[in-house]
Amino acid sequence: MHQLRRLDDGLDRGEGLTLSIIDRRPGLRVGLLLTPPMLWLGAAYLGALGALLITSLWTQNDFTGNIERVWTLENFKTLFTVEVYRTITVRTIGLAALVTAVDALLAFPIALYMAKIASPRAQRLLVIAVLMPLWASYLVKAYAWRGMFSADGPIEWVLQPFGLNTPGYGMVATTVTLAYLWLPYMILPVYAALERVPDSLFEASADLGAGSVHTLRRVVLPMAFPGFVAGSIFTFSLTMGDYIAVKIVGGTTQLLGNVVYDNQGAANNLPFAAAVATVPIVVMLGYLAAARRTGALESL
Amino acid sequence: MRKNRSRRRWSGPAALACAGVLALATACGTSSGDSSGGGSAAEDQGGFTAPDIPMQDSVGDPEGQVNILAWPGYAEDGSTDKSVDWVTPFEEETGCQANVKYFGTSDEAVQLMKTGEYDVVSASGDATLRLIASGDVAPVNTDLLKNYPDIAPFLKDQKFNSVDGQMYGVPHGWGANLLMYNTDVVKPAPTSWGAVFDGASDYAGKVTAYDSPIYIADAALYLMKTQPDLGIEDPYALDQDQLAAAVDLLKKQKENVSEYWSDYLKEVQAFKSGDSVIGTTWEVINAVAQGEGAPVEAVLPEEGSTGWSDTWMISSKAQNPNCGYLWMDYITSPEAQAQVAEYFGEAPANTKACALTSDKTFCDTYHAEDADYAAQIHYWTTPIEQCLDGRTDVTCTNYGDWTTAWTEVKG
C-alpha cells in the first residue's frame, strides 16, 4: 500500500487528479463508459436516419442530377398521389406478410422437433444444419433459385409430366426465394422459445386429459408466440428492404427497395429515394408497435 | 480525406473561373449546387446552352497518373484476360499510371463524375448532355488530339457530344441495339420491332427488354414509324402525349415480358435457358450467347434502331488533365481502337483501326465505315425540356419524367 501510494505520488499530478475524480464519482465513470456507444448510436445511427429524412425534403434537378437544397414536400406528394407507388407499397407489405406466414408455418414443426423430440446430439446437428445456409452467400442462394425456376430448370422438369410449367420469374419465385433465405431467422427464435417450455407442462396437459392437438394449441403455441413475434420482425423487415432477390428471380416485379435503388442508383434522385425509404421505416415502426402491444417483446 | 482534397482543388481554379465570367452565377455552385443548364437559344438543341467551363489550350507535362471511369471492357490492362491489354502500353508510352474504374449504367457514370475523383469518362449519349449541363465535364480542345482527324466524320459535332459546334469529347465507338431472337422458337425470323410490341403476345412470358428509362425511346421509335399521327420526329424528343403513347405501348408489352435486363450476362443466361426468346440486345451479347451455344440471331429491324455512341470526356475538376488528354488521344489511336472495338464488339470511331483488327472483316460486320447504317441508328441522347427535334411550341419531357414513366411501366 505504501509503495502504491508512493507510485501514485510519482505520477503526473494532473493524471493522479483525474484518476481520483473518476474513483470518487461513479456517475462520471458510468458516463465515460457509456458515452462512446451512445455517441455511436446517436450520431452514426440516428444521425444517418435524420440525414435521410432531411434529404427527403430536398429536391433534385431532374436533368443535371444535382441536389437542390430547397425545402419542399414535393417528394412525399408524389409518393402519395402517384398510383404506382401505392401499388408497390401494398405489394411489398403483402409480400412481407406472406413470406412471414410461410416461414412461420415451416419453422414451427422444425423448431418443435428440434426442441422437444430430437436427442441432444441430433439437436446440435439440427441447429448447425439450420445455420448452415447462413454461411453461403445471399447471392449464391438467390441465383440457385433462379436456376430452379428457369425454363430448363428442375421445377419445370418435375412438373412437366403433370402437364404443368414452372411459374417462371415473378411473385411466386420471389416468395419462395425470400422464405428460403429468411427461414433460419424464424426457426431460431421459435426454437429458443420452445426449448424453454418445461416438459412437465406436456405431462400436466396430458394428465388433465388434453390430446396432443389440444396441447399444441393451448399450451405450446401460446408459449412459442413470443418466438414467432421475434422471428417475424426479422422476416418482415428483411423482406420489406429486399431488392436483390427480386431482381434475380422477380421477373418484372418491383418492390419498394427497387424503387429506392432505381432512384438512387439510376436516376440520381437521392431526395426521392430518401422519401421512398421512409415508407419501410414507418411500416416497421407500426409493426414494432403492434408487436409490443401483444406483450410478446416483454417475455423474450 | 480524398474528397477533401478534391474539394479544395476544385475551389481554386473553379473559383477563379467563376470570378472571371459573370454569366457563371448558375454554373459555379458547390458540387451539388443548382446549375440549371442555362437558358439562351441555340437552334439545333432547342435552346440548350452549356455552363462556361474553360478549355485546356495545351498539354503540359504528364502528372504520372490518370483516373479513368469507363464502360466494362473499355480500358483492359490484362487483368481480365492476359492477351487483352492496351492500358500497359499506354502507361509505358506516357508515364501515366492508369487507375481504371468500371461502371454499369450511364446513370452511375453521371453520379461518379460528380465526385470529381475521375479525370476522364467514356460517356454514352444519354449521359453526355447531363454531364455538360451540370458542369462536370469541360470542353475538349480537339486540336490537342493528333488522332482526332481520323475519327469518322459522321460521329463528330453530334447533338450528344457537342454544344454550339464545340466538341465536349472525342468519339470512341458506337453500335446499335439489335433485336435478338431464339431461332428454334421464333419463326419466321422477325424483321420489325413489332415482334416485341404489337406482336409480343405470340411469345407471351418470353419477351425481354432493357431495364432503363432510356428504353422508352425504343417504343417511341416504333411509334414514330407505325403511328405517324403522333408526330414523333425524334424518339428522344417526346411531349406529354407522345410519352403517354409510348408508356401505353410499353405497359402492353410488359404483360408478355419475362424479365427486364440491365446486366448483359443475365440476358445471355436467359436466352440460353429459354426464359427469354426475343428482345432487345447488343452485338456483344449476341456474340457471347452464340459462343456459348445458344440458338440465337440478332437483326437490325426495318424501323432502324436506337444505339449508343460513346465519347471520352474530361472532367472539369480533373486533377490530371494532361494525362487525361494523353489517354483520350491514345484510346482513339488506330491500334488501341482496333483492340477495344474487337474486344467489346462495336464499331471503332477511328476508321484507321479497320486495317489493324485481327478479323479483317470486322469493320464490315459492324458497319464501321457505313454512314448510311449509322444514320439508321438513333443514338442514346438525354431527353431534355427543350425539344431536341427543334420544336419550340411545346415543352418536351425530360429524363426525370422518363424515370417516373419507367417506374409506372414496370408497375
Can you describe what's shown?
The complex is a heterodimer of chains A (300) and B (411). Chain A has helices at 2-10, 13-24, 26-56, 74-81, 83-117, 120-131, 138-149, 154-159, 171-195, 199-207, 212-241, 244-249, 256-266, 270-293, and strands at 59-60, 67-68. With 300 residues, chain A is an all-alpha fold. By secondary structure, chain B is an alpha/beta fold. Chain B folds into 2 domains: 2-174 and 309-370, Periplasmic binding protein-like II (D-Maltodextrin-Binding Protein, domain 2, 3-Layer(aba) Sandwich); 178-281 and 390-410, Periplasmic binding protein-like II (D-Maltodextrin-Binding Protein, domain 2). Chain B is 32% helix and 16% strand. Chain B has helices at 2-20, 87-94, 106-113, 125-133, 216-226, 240-254, 264-273, 283-291, 321-331, 334-344, 362-365, 371-375, 399-410, and strands spanning 65-70, 97-102, 120-123, 137-138, 162-163, 166-167, 170-176, 178-182, 207-210, 257-261, 278-281, 296-299, 305-315, 347-348, 377-379.
